[in-house]
Specification:
With 192 residues, this protein is an all-alpha fold. Helix content is 70%, strand content 0%. The protein is built from eight helices and no strands. Helix 6 runs antiparallel to helix 7. The longest helix has 25 residues. It starts with a helix and ends in an 18-residue tail after the last helix. 40% of the residues are buried. The C terminus is likely disordered.
């Protein structure tokens, strides 16, 4: 479903479809809403300097618990964010709400926030999922209210990251949640 939503949004943005026109109408109405200090703080939650340490701490905890496959899968999802977002920005060539310069679709900050915070919840404990959702949503709201991105830029990023995180869950669970301890069944106790 996330992949279909991402494809639909990307098509509408690239083709200057009616959904893009509605998005820009709504986006213009939202820019500047809320106190600037708060919306800037929320938008900054998607900065790599803020989001990546959260993910790194959760990955460290997962590695300590020997959940190596899931840590590797989530780290791979995070590495894929700029690898996918940068070419999409170049291909869609969409200007931002407050600038004619292109390169705003999809939102890299929204994608970074979603993978970092949702990935951290996957690694540290799923009971943290509501916190991850709150931080991800707050980032998107801040990005739109500050005029850094159109709403569809953010929604497309979330859709794309839904695919990445689903892949991470699938890969992490297939890889096994724990590495066998030495001497355990399936574990090696001696070289060779």
């Amino acid at each position: 479903m996330c992949a279909v939503l991402f494809a639909l949004i990307t098509w509408q943005v690239a083709a200057h479809g009616p959904l893009r026109a509605l998005d820009e109408h709504i986006g213009r109405a939202l820019v500047g809403g809320g106190p600037a200090y708060l919306t800037e703080f929320l938008a900054d939650l998607g900065n790599p300097q803020v989001a990546l340490p959260v993910l790194a701490a959760a990955a460290g905890l997962a590695l300590r618990r020997h959940h190596w496959a899931m840590a590797a899968a989530v780290a791979t999802a995070m590495v894929l964010v700029p690898a996918l977002v940068a070419p999409l920005k170049a291909l869609t060539d969409r200007p931002g709400p407050l600038t004619p310069e292109p390169g705003y679709f999809p939102s890299g900050h929204a994608a970074t926030a979603m993978v970092a915070y949702a990935g951290a919840a996957l690694l540290a404990g799923r009971r943290l999922t509501p916190v991850a959702v709150l931080l991800t949503a707050a980032t998107g709201i801040g990005l739109v209210l500050r005029g850094y991105h159109w709403p569809l830029d953010v929604l497309a990023s979330w859709s794309l990251c839904g695919v990445l995180l689903a892949g991470a869950v699938l890969a992490g669970s297939r890889g096994g949640s724990r590495c066998p301890a030495p001497g355990a069944a399936g574990g090696r106790t001696a070289p060779g």
